[in-house]
Amino acid sequence: MSLYPTDRSGEFAPDEMTRNSLQFIRSGRRVSLDRFPPRTTVLDWLRLDERTTGTKEGCAEGDCGACAVVVVRKREGRLVYEPVNSCITLIGQLDGGELITVEDLADDDSLHPVQAAMARQHGSQCGFCTPGIVMSLFAHYHQCDGITSRDKINDVLAGNLCRCTGYRPIVDAAVTACASAAEDKFIRGATQRSAALRVLDDAADVLVGDDKSFFAAPASETTLAQLFSRHPDATIVAGATDVGLWVTKKLTPIEKIIHVGRVTGLADIEDTADGYAFGAAVSLARAAPVLGSIDPDIAEVLRRFGSIQVRAGGTVGGNIANGSPIGDLAPMLIALGATVELRLGDEIRRLPLESFFLDYGKQDRKPGEFVRRLIVPKLQPAAHFRAYKITKRFDEDISAVLAAFCLTVEGGVIREARVAFGGMAGIPKRAKALETKLRGLSLADARSWRSAADAVKLDFTPLTDLRASAGYRNQVAGNLVIKALAEFAGVGSDVTRVVDRRIVADAAE
Ligand SMILES: Cc1cc2nc3c(=O)[nH]c(=O)nc-3n(C[C@H](O)[C@H](O)[C@H](O)COP(=O)(O)OP(=O)(O)OC[C@H]3O[C@@H](n4cnc5c(N)ncnc54)[C@H](O)[C@@H]3O)c2cc1C
Ligand code: FES
Ligand code: FES
Description:
By secondary structure, this protein is of the alpha+beta class.
């Protein structure tokens, strides 16, 4: 039986547009792989197959950055350098890109400017974190055009853990190295590298394996829909920042993988008068400035979403399709009134995002159906938005609670309220009792705020888990309602917050 649909005679209709190998650029050469277990990670391929061991394994779950490598792709005519965690990136995701590791940086006997600065500033002691840190900074060196700051570097390094050197010398090295426009062998070879990537961009469907075990990366949405209908037991992989952990931590045997990262149109962002439509495969890094333009709080949450590596890989669609009760996007998008678009075969349907989440681990998605787009309305002139992410650590931490408020206020009175929470139930959910209490509430009447906030307890019975106790969650949710009302009433965010409400255009880099 073939993976692709048969023609009317029942015979396999061979498709000359299908490529049965993976291809990417590595150290100036084209690598072509036609046999590999579908769940192979980039880190395992590097260390066990290629035997390049400069890239380290620390946590194997995307947290420490020891395994960071850079993937270069052509986007809108330019080369884009993105750091990803190779421990949770599947080798198949590299198709069409260029893989750069720490072994590639030096120019003959001369260290790369980032490496030289790290050595000069004593940015390394035991050295275990150093390859990952160098790769994250190498990506920044190429992306920042010589414009950086200590704050920016701190964001860039949020996903790189160093246990012994201390960050001061590392940040000193980064600021020095990234203070001028990139000038290295990668810039000098950009024309050839760009041409090599263009050759790989063949718009072919990729399929490596057989009916029982395969890695597929369709190039068109039609092929994706057909393939997933035919193999509804396959695992869809977008950025693999969740799925990668099933491989490394749960040791889940995944035999059929359909990667959505090459599907034409699925990574598009459409800007209309009323809102934005995000293809499911839009990365969080690309979505961040657009979503952040709706409200600065969204930009701030996304700045703290995982790390620069997680945002480069992770997608908008993955963060919704995973059905997580603690995913950061869902509560914010539900409060904004977003719609999710799903596709099964040729059939496309839309539903309010809040209706997509049915129960813990259960979404309104049929076998073979995939998330196609998220449609997010812009804020109306009388609407005000706030979102707060509560975590134990400021950087790279999963939310214990996330609260998002979208209120329409006229003459100091709340007319309409949409409030959603993450971390308070088995799914991201609207707080309907609270919303009812808020409608008609005068913002000037501060005495009524506490009784409105108490309504959260009617909406949720949170759990105790390793992130927070039920009591803490209840307390913090009520306090966030008070905080939001205080800010809507005009109390400055410099009073209500540690980090001020900021306008951040490029929140996620
Ligand atoms: C270190 C680390 C930090 C993190 N921090 C955060 C954080 O701060 N906030 C947060 O919310 N999350 C966080 N995450 C979780 C994860 O990064 C996000 O959920 C991310 O958005 C997942 O997207 P992805 O593209 O990587 O999904 P994948 O791992 O590729 O897929 C996730 C799930 O969605 C399914 N899927 C993906 N795309 C589709 C589609 N189009 N249609 C149908 N099903 C699909 C997959 O089959 C899988 O079940 C973190 C993860 C790591 C490793
Ligand atoms: S090994 Fe820690 S992020 Fe990959
Ligand atoms: S130098 Fe030892 S962990 Fe960073």
